[in-house]
Amino acid sequence: FGVSKPIAREALRQLTSAGLVSTQQGKVARAKALSGEPMDRIYAYAVRSSLTRLQEANEMRRVIEVGIARLAAERRDPRGLDLMRQALLDMRAGIGKPGDFTQADIMFHLGLATATGNSMIRIQMEGMRSVQREVSELFSRRSNRTEADWRATVERHQAIHDAIAAGDTDLADRRVHEHFDAADIASFEVADKLGEPSP
Predict the structure, then answer these.
(1) Pairwise CA distance, residues 85 & 102, whole Å
(2) Could you give the CA distance from residue 118 to residue 116 in angstroms, rounded to a whole number?
(3) How many helices (H) and strands (E) does the chain have?
(4) Is the separation of the CB atoms in 87 and 1 below 8 Å?
(5) Helix, strand, coil shares of the chain as percentages rounded to 5?
(6) Which residues contact 18 (CB under 8 A, 6 or more apart)?
(7) Could you tell me which of 65, 176, 57, 162 has the C-alpha nearest to residue 116?
(8) 155 with 115: CB under 8 angstroms?
(9) How far apart are CA 199 and CA 194, in angstroms?
(10) pLDDT tens string for the chain (199 positions)?
């Protein structure tokens, strides 16, 4: 293409930095499979800046995931339903273990996106993993979190799965709203503990 080597090297460096290309010394650069990794890096920086950013991220997720849940209930891709079911088992096994529970929570929401059968929506959810991780870990490590609270979280996820598996779009919508209502309450509890003003 008539491009000089320094320009080509800089282009590859930027593509690698964005997570779009894989490079190794002495090997040919290769394009990476399309994923949410670049978006995930951006969100990771944003949500770590303050509790307000986490609450805004929760609001963003609510807006996005309500639409995802409705489409998932219409399409019910079996791969997504399988991921959600396995994640529910892992969540139950991870009660009281913040790291395990968080990973299962992330996989549940990835399964929710996969159930739409839309690869771009799945990539969007992959891009929000850092948001999910920060929110889930912060809430899971609350000192006042009881076993009943852990189980209530699992049951809210179970209710989302059941509505989607039944193909009930309106119920799926309500269940996702209920899930994020509970997350909002938890974020206010965290704000009180940290002495930060709630937005």
Answers:
(1) 15
(2) 5
(3) 9, 2
(4) no
(5) 75, 0, 25
(6) 38
(7) 65
(8) no
(9) 14
(10) 788 878 877 877 777 766 667 777 777 777 656 665 666 666 666 666 566 777 787 788 889 999 999 999 999 999 999 999 999 999 999 998 988 999 999 999 999 999 999 999 999 898 888 878 877 776 666 666 788 989 999 999 999 999 999 999 999 999 999 998 887 666 555 555 545 554 4
Nearest-10 crossing angle of helices 147-165, 78-93? 170
Radius of gyration of the chain (CA): 19
Q: What's the rounded Cα separation, in Å, for the pair 109 and 94? A: 16
Contact call for residues 194 and 51 (beta carbons, < 8 A): yes
Domain boundaries along the sequence of the chain:
1-32, 37-194
Of 161, 110, 105, nearest to 136 by C-alpha is 105
CATH for 37-194? 1.20.120.530
Read off the amino acid at residue 89.
Answer: L
Check if the beta carbon of residue 199 is closer than 8 Å to that of residue 56: yes
pTM here? Answer: 0.76
Cβ–Cβ < 8 Å for 175, 159: yes
Other Cβ atoms closer than 10 A to 57: 20
